[in-house]
Structures are given as structure tokens and as C-alpha cells.
Design goal:
By secondary structure, this protein is α+β, with helices and mostly antiparallel strands. The chain contains nine helices and eleven strands. The protein has helices at 82-93, 116-131, 138-148, 150-157, 195-205, 225-228, 237-243, 245-255, 278-288, and strands at residues 9-27, 34-54, 66-71, 99-105, 161-166, 170-173, 181-187, 261-264, 270-274, 293-299, 309-310. The strands form two sheets. Strands 1, 2, 3, 4, 5, 6 and 11 form a seven-stranded mixed sheet that branches. A four-stranded antiparallel sheet has the order 8-9-7-10.
């Protein structure tokens, strides 16, 4: 039962992420899942989620219903939305004592590789649990996150940076690199890259992939952006750029603005760069313009974001 002190309405930010490196180590048979090695870092860019307790539920009027309102692009059927599924997981664990209304303001581009849907799901886990007086233990919330999706585990963990293995759910926290100005670029006209398609293109290039071992990584390698830029690339870049030449051109334009670090974001379609200072980032944005790409100025995070707060 929810604590009497539990709020009726909370707000939480759902931050985007960068994959500092991404290696595909192996393909599991027969399921076809892929084992990866990656490193995550959070961006200031974030969606906004407000969750309100509701007394009425679906069907017979009991608790447990989840309503979703989205300010931004069409995200498809609510029942397939990760934030809705996350909210339902917590409500089921607390025996449907109440329902919730989710109000989601989207700022993270959809299907960009920045983790917006996964971050929304992690935010919903924590927000609905706050309405339930934190009745679900933290370790159980993290279990829910892993079941919802590999990236959800990172966002739900509260880590600012982490190494990840397996399908992305095995995490080792890292001290975050220093906060730095970042520029996220998306090709115009807009491109959407579905992660299963990107894995499929990688599979086409590697019909019988030899298993690869993880890199030998030193935590000090993540202490500064210069060393992060030398760690390695993103295995999705070659197959995704091959299918979408405009993304390759965008990557090359961004790389030409002298960032510390530039990579395809996850499986795409965004490309991101990190700069030594805001002046260099702003100069890059001015040089690129927004005729052929959409640009988002942001910053990497080195301070933990607050959890759900009463709204």
C-alpha cells in the first residue's frame, strides 16, 4: 500500500545518452540476439515526464489503468510504448492500487539512437514507484528495466556513465567524463533507422561472424574526451552509412568541425560530436547551418539528475 506521504503527481527528466563506443561481439544462435560491448554517457538533452495518480482504472473501474498523452511526434499505439509498459510493471507489482496518467513532452528525436524511448521507460519506473511510496525495491525496478530493454537498465541505474556488456544490461559504473559541449545532428530530410534493421545490415556483412573478445579497457581512458576519442568506433557506422549515404556525409561534415569526439549515435540516425568549449561547438553549428541537417546544442552530464520530484 502506498505511503500516506507519497505524492499524487511527480515530474522527472528522461535524459538522452551517447554510446561512447559500440562493438558487436557475437550473434547468439538460434535466437539471433547480439552480444555487444558499449560505454554510455548521459546528455543534458531530455524528455519531460509528468505522472499523476488516478483513482479509476480500465474495465471494471479498479486501479491499474495507464493513460498516455504525448506532446511531440506520434509514438504509435500506447500499448507498445515502453513508458506505458514500465508504468504497468510497477502497478502490477503494487497490486493495482491506483492508475496513472503519463504526460510526456518529447525533446529527444525518435529513432535517433539517443535512447529516448528507453529513458522514458526508466523515468516511468521511478515516477510510478514514487507515487506508490517506493514500494518496489530498487533491485526489482532494475530487473523490470532489464526485461523492458537493454538500454533501459542503464537509464534506470542512475549512473552518469557506464560500461555495458551482454545485450547491454550488464553494467559497470564509471566516473563520468567532464561535462562538455555537444552537438547532435540529424539529416534532413529526416531519416529513421530501426535498430533491428541496423543489426540485420550488420548480419548481412558478417554472415558467419567470428566471436570477438571485449577490449581491455582502463577506467582512466574515460577520464577525458581526448582519450575517449581514441577508444574505438561504432560497429553500426559501416553498415548504416552504407544504407544511408546522407548519414555518412553528415558524419564527415561534423568530423570536419574539429571535435574531440564524433560518432553515430547507437544504430542511428543521429550523429553527435563533443567539443573542447562552447565557442567551438557554436562555431561548428554556424558552419554547418540547418539547411541539410537539424542541429541540437546540448552538453554531456557530469552531475546526477534528480529523481522524481513532486509536481
Amino acid at each position: 500500500m502506498a505511503s500516506p506521504a507519497a505524492p499524487d503527481r511527480v515530474r522527472i527528466a528522461a535524459h538522452a545518452k551517447l554510446n561512447l563506443l559500440l562493438r558487436i561481439l557475437a550473434r547468439e544462435a538460434p535466437a539471433g540476439y547480439h552480444q555487444i560491448e558499449t560505454a554510455f554517457a548521459l546528455l543534458e538533452l531530455a524528455d519531460d515526464l509528468v505522472v499523476t495518480r488516478t483513482a479509476s482504472g480500465g474495465g471494471g473501474g479498479g486501479g491499474g489503468s495507464v493513460a498516455l498523452t504525448v506532446h511531440g511526434p506520434d509514438l504509435g499505439p500506447p500499448e507498445q510504448n515502453l513508458a506505458v509498459r514500465a508504468a504497468r510493471a510497477v502497478l502490477e507489482a503494487t497490486r493495482h492500487k491506483f492508475g496513472v496518467a503519463l504526460e510526456l513532452t518529447k525533446r529527444i528525436p525518435v529513432r535517433s539512437g539517443l535512447g529516448g524511448g528507453s529513458s522514458d521507460a526508466a523515468a516511468a519506473l521511478h515516477a510510478v514507484n514514487a507515487l506508490a511510496g517506493n514500494a518496489v525495491p530498487r533491485h526489482e525496478l532494475l530487473h523490470f528495466a532489464t526485461r523492458l530493454g537493454a538500454d533501459v537498465a542503464f537509464f534506470a541505474s542512475g549512473a552518469l556513465a557506464a560500461l555495458a556488456w551482454g545485450r547491454g544490461e550488464r553494467l559497470f559504473r564509471l566516473p563520468p567524463p567532464p561535462a562538455a559541449p555537444a552537438l547532435v545532428a540529424l539529416a534532413l530530410p529526416p531519416l529513421a533507422v530501426a535498430t533491428p534493421d541496423a543489426y540485420g545490415w550488420w548480419d548481412e556483412m558478417h554472415p558467419e561472424p567470428a566471436p570477438r573478445g571485449p577490449l581491455l579497457l582502463d577506467a582512466d581512458a574515460f577520464a577525458g574526451w581526448g582519450s575517449i576519442g581514441r577508444l574505438g568506433g561504432n560497429d553500426f557506422e559501416i553498415p548504416v552509412f552504407g544504407k544511408h549515404p546522407p548519414l555518412r556525409a553528415l558524419y564527415e561534415r561534423l568530423a570536419g568541425t574539429h571535435p574531440y569526439w564524433v560518432r553515430l549515435c547507437g544504430s542511428g540516425s543521429a550523429v553527435a560530436a563533443v567539443y573542447a568549449n562552447e565557442g567551438l561547438r557554436d562555431d561548428a553549428a554556424m558552419l554547418l547551418g540547418e539547411k541539410h541537417q537539424r542541429l541540437i546544442k546540448t552538453t554531456t552530464r557530469a552531475v546526477a539528475a534528480p529523481g522524481p520530484e513532486p509536481a
